[in-house]
Amino acid sequence: YFRRERKKRAKKEEGDIFATKKESYKASEQRKTDQKLVDKQVLKAIKAHPDKKMLFTYLSAMFGLRSSQYPHRMQF
């Protein structure tokens, strides 16, 4: 369900590679409604939690790794 559909590549004999444009990803309506339903449930659970301010701050923070920081070695 969460994996995007892969399109088959055109064979080399089928036209020029520069003539074709890649289409941008468009989410289906079913996927959009499912995402809204999940988001509503997650927000409801966060708002009911006593540390909701900290949770909103944590979830809205940017995440990034620097050099020599490996995700599989992190401990929380």
Q: How would you describe this protein?
A:
- With 76 residues, this protein is mainly alpha-helical.
- The chain has helices at 29-48, 52-60.
- The radius of gyration is 21 Å and the shape is flat.
- Helix content is 38%, strand content 0%.
- The model has no long low-confidence stretch (mean pLDDT 84).
- It has a domain at 28-58.
- Keywords: Ribonucleoprotein, Ribosomal protein.
- Pfam families: Ribosomal_L6e (PF01159).
- InterPro entries: 60S_ribosomal_eL6.
- It comes from Sphaerius sp. APV-2005.
- This is Ribosomal protein L6e.
Termini gap: 30 Å
Form type: flat
**Would you tell me the overall average pLDDT?**
84
Note the main sheet. Answer: none
- Helical run tally: 2
The tally of beta strands, per DSSP, is 0
Strand composition percent: under 5%
Helix fraction by DSSP (H/I, runs of at least 4): 25-40%
Spell out the helices and strands N to C. Answer: HH
Q: Structural class per helix/strand content?
A: mainly alpha
Q: Spans of 5+ residues with little confidence (pLDDT < 50)?
A: none
Radius of gyration: 21 Å
